[in-house]
Design a protein that fits this description.
Blueprint lengths: L1 H23 L2 H6 L7 H9 L9 H8 L3 H7 L6 H4 L12 H19 L7 H10 L7 H17 L1 H4 L2 H12 L1 H4 L1
Helix pairs in contact: 1-3, 1-7, 3-5, 8-9, 9-11
The structure holds zinc ion.
Length: about 180
């Protein structure tokens, strides 16, 4: 039955991402989002370590095996993850293109909404980002600043006022496109 449970969680998450991606002006990316979750490698591990849809099975697989096959498969194929772009050979991590940053924002918000359900508040993502993700994220500082400002705006003004292409582009340009601006 974990098969059905996990399928529901994935579809719920994809639906949330899709709705947000329409607001962000990237409906096609929203539609294609996380398709690799339907691959055997990702799906089978996530069914095995299913957490009743309350949290991701990936950390549980890591605890059990020392690594998550699903995650390694996923991050190598999905450009909306910071980890896709991480390259230990470069001095400074790259600036991730705007469309994937938009998808990343939709993904992170949707994950919170999916896992938290009724307990989700507009402050949730900023709190989560600041306490659990920000310091450890191996990415360019400009990308961190972009995400911090987006989630700050969500916490202050809500999703509808923050998540639209114009506003996201403005924030992206402020931190990630400095050279193009002047
Ligand atoms: Zn993903």
């Amino acid at each position: 039955m974990n098969f059905v449970g996990h399928l529901k969680t994935v579809l719920k998450h994809k639906w949330q991402v899709f709705k947000l991606s329409i607001k962000a002006g990237i409906p096609l990316r929203g539609l294609m989002h996380d398709l690799s979750k339907f691959s055997y490698t990702e799906f089978s591990e996530s069914v095995k370590y299913y957490q009743q849809g309350k949290r991701s099975p990936i950390p549980v697989a890591r605890e059990e095996n020392g690594y998550s096959k699903a995650w390694l498969h996923h991050k190598g194929r999905n450009k909306h993850h910071l980890e896709y772009w991480y390259d230990r050979e470069v001095k400074e991590q790259p600036i991730i293109p705007f469309k994937y940053c938009e998808e990343m924002v939709c993904d992170k918000l949707a994950a919170g909404i999916t896992y938290k359900g009724k307990e989700w508040t507009k402050e949730f993502e900023l709190e989560y980002w600041n306490t659990k993700e920000r310091d450890r994220a191996d990415t360019n500082e400009a990308i961190k600043d972009f995400l911090t400002e987006v989630f700050t705006q969500v916490s202050e003004n809500g999703i509808d006022k923050t998540i639209n292409k114009k506003n996201l582009k403005k924030i992206y340009d402020k931190y990630c496109n400095k050279t193009n601006n002047n």
